[in-house]
C-alpha cells in the first residue's frame, strides 16, 4: 500500500535525522496511524516509498547504546519501535575536544575567542549544540525544578557546535551565517 503524509520538511539529510530522533519517531508513528486509517483506494498528493528492515526488539536492545521499545499504543495495531539515542552519541565532544576541533579548522585562533563565542551566543544552553551531562537522575530533576545548572555538571557538544563557532570566527557579523554553518559539512 502506498504511504502518504504531509510534513514541513526543512531538510532530509541523514545526519540531521539523528539529531531529531523525537520528531522522526513522531512522524513515523503518525504515518503508521494514518496509513491504517486511510481507505485503500484513496488518492494522495505526496507519495513515497519507505524501505523497512524488520528486526526483533531483543536484537535492537542488544546493540550497544540503543534502547528499543515497542509502542503498542499505536491505533494501527502495528507497533512502532522507538529507539532512543544515548546523550553522548548525540553530543560526543567535551569542551576541550570542541575547542581542539575549532582550532584545527581555524589555526591561530586564540582559545579565549572560542570561549567568548560560546559565552556570547549561549552555545551551552542551545540544545542544537550542547546538553548538560548529569551524573544522576536526581541532579537532572533538581535542575528541571530550579532551572539553575550546578557548576559541577559537564556540558557536552556536537559537531554542529564546532561548525557554528567556526562560522562565527569566519563571519562574525553575518546574521545568515548560522544557517550556513549548520548546513555545511565538517
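^ C-alpha cells above, recovered residues below v
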Amino acid at each position: 500500500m502506498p504511504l502518504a503524509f504531509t510534513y514541513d520538511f526543512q531538510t532530509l539529510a541523514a545526519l540531521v535525522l539523528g539529531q531529531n530522533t523525537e520528531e522522526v519517531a513522531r512522524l513515523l508513528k503518525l504515518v503508521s496511524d494514518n496509513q491504517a486509517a486511510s481507505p485503500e483506494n484513496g488518492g494522495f498528493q505526496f507519495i513515497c516509498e519507505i524501505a523497512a528492515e524488520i528486526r526483533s526488539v531483543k536484537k535492537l536492545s542488544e546493540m550497544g547504546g540503543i534502547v528499543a521499545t515497542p509502542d503498542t499504543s499505536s491505533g494501527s495495531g502495528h507497533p512502532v519501535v522507538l529507539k532512543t539515542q544515548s546523550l553522548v552519541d548525540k553530543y560526543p565532544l567535551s569542551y576541550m575536544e570542541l575547542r581542539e576541533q575549532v582550532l584545527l579548522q581555524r589555526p591561530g585562533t586564540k582559545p579565549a575567542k572560542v570561549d567568548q563565542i560560546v559565552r556570547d551566543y549561549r552555545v551551552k544552553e542551545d540544545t542544537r549544540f550542547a546538553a548538560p551531562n548529569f551524573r544522576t537522575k536526581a541532579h537532572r530533576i533538581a535542575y528541571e525544578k530550579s532551572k539553575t545548572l550546578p557548576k559541577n555538571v559537564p556540558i557536552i557538544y556536537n559537531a554542529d557546535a564546532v561548525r557554528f563557532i567556526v562560522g562565527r570566527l569566519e563571519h562574525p557579523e553575518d546574521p545568515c551565517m548560522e544557517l550556513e554553518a549548520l548546513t555545511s559539512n565538517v
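Residues 90-183 form one domain.
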